[in-house]
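Example noted here:
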Amino acid sequence: MKPVEVAVRRLPHATGLPLPRYLTPGAAGADVAAAVTSDIALGPSERVAIPTGLVLAVPPGYEVQVRPRSGLALRHGVTVANAPGTVDSDYRGELMVILVNLGRERYVVRRGERVAQLVVAPVAQAAFSERAELPPSERGSGGFGSTGA
């Protein structure tokens, strides 16, 4: 399968940091690093937008999903607050990662630390049309927990 090309512009505060990269051949997510200029302490229940120093040009028909790193979540309770975050194909601002500390201890984000992973995914835009009636389904209007899970 041919890779989807995502053009990247590096901002000055990301000088010396790696571009997003896959650490194993089978990885779905490319790790992205914190481009902080000084350490950022994240106390329990706090959240902060961490700069990456990168601007992405996502091709039309795709999005980049910003997802947590499982090791960071398991070991420290630090995760992406709006997981998955979305970078739209028409966004040209700096990629920021909204981290939240769900753990009990203070966590320090340091320059170059891998703080999230990026997954490139195809998207489709829908045509929403209002109707007075909708076709029935087996589930009907059953909400949260209605399927027994």
